[in-house]
Write a structure and sequence with these properties.
By secondary structure, the protein is of the alpha+beta class. It folds into 2 domains: about 45 residues; about 80 residues, Immunoglobulin-like, CATH 2.60.40. The chain has a 3-stranded antiparallel beta sheet with strand order 1-2-5, with no helix packed on it. It has a 3-stranded antiparallel beta sheet with strand order 4-3-6, with no helix packed on it. It is elongated, with a radius of gyration of 28 Å. It starts with a helix and ends with a strand.
């Protein structure tokens, strides 16, 4: 059997060494760590700050009011609200400071001034201060 192995090694070269196996193991471990973190951040971990518009109404041609809930955790956050017209263009914008509200959500309201009549008001996201 060793003669066959020696013949194969002399004909085709040395068998794959430990360095190649080590490299494949290292890359595989990095891929597993990356996907574990991505799954945790996407589905399990709590966001640092979040906002959700519960309702909105048009007060007049240049003002929209939004009722929303916000979660900021133990740090204050700034949340952005945008008003859109029927063509999809942004016609109003405001940024609201929300104080820290450790582990509960607050029901709040904001009025967004618009340059023309708006049809939709959306929360664009929050950033922690």
């Amino acid at each position: 059997m060793t003669e066959t192995n020696d013949l194969l090694e002399s004909r085709y070269g040395r068998k794959s060494g430990g360095l190649r196996v080590l490299l494949i193991s290292f890359v595989s471990a990095l891929v597993v760590v990356f996907f574990s973190f991505a799954i945790y951040a996407s589905f399990i971990g709590k966001p640092m700050a979040s906002v959700e518009v519960t309702s909105y109404e048009q007060l007049d041609a240049h003002h929209m009011k939004a009722n929303f809930t916000a979660f900021t955790g133990d740090k204050a956050a700034a949340c952005v609200f945008k008003a859109y017209n029927t063509a999809g263009s942004v016609v109003g914008f405001t940024e609201v400071e929300i104080p820290a509200n450790t582990n509960d959500t607050k029901a709040l309201a904001v009025i967004v001034k618009t340059v023309v009549a708006a049809s939709v008001l959306r929360a664009d996201g929050c950033s922690v201060k």
